[in-house]
Design goal:
Structural class: mainly alpha
Number of domains: 1
Distance between the termini: 84 Å
Number of helices: 3
Order of helices and strands: HHH
Shape: rod-shaped
Length: about 110
């Protein structure tokens, strides 16, 4: 940043005018930055809200997958317990476990 005394020596004039111009430019720059930041605030907040909602949906999917895997694990334990003892056919073990249909459609 230039020293105001430098401009006074070059133009041998009054430095008050240059200082006033500098203050006006700083105020104009401040106003432009204020307007720009206010213009960008709503889209930024909207995108943050949308990303938070998307994150909640993905977390819900992870929880659903975790619960489904627990159900499958319990079902397989039931099948294993139902088929213990004798060498039974898979369909009989599946039926004894209280399940409707075997995976694979048979």
């Amino acid at each position: 940043m230039a020293v105001p005394g430098f401009w006074c020596r070059v133009y041998s004039g009054d430095c008050r005018f240059l200082q006033e111009v500098g203050f006006v430019m700083i105020d104009a720059l401040r106003n432009v930055l204020y307007l720009l930041s206010n213009a960008l605030l709503p889209p930024t907040l909207l995108s943050i809200i949308l990303l938070a909602a998307w994150t909640a949906i993905l977390i819900g999917g992870i929880v659903r997958e975790w619960m489904t895997r627990g159900q499958v694990r319990r079902m397989l334990l039931q099948i294993r317990e139902a088929s213990r003892g004798a060498a039974m056919d898979r369909r009989i073990a599946w039926k004894n476990a209280g399940l409707r249909q075997m995976p694979g459609g048979s």
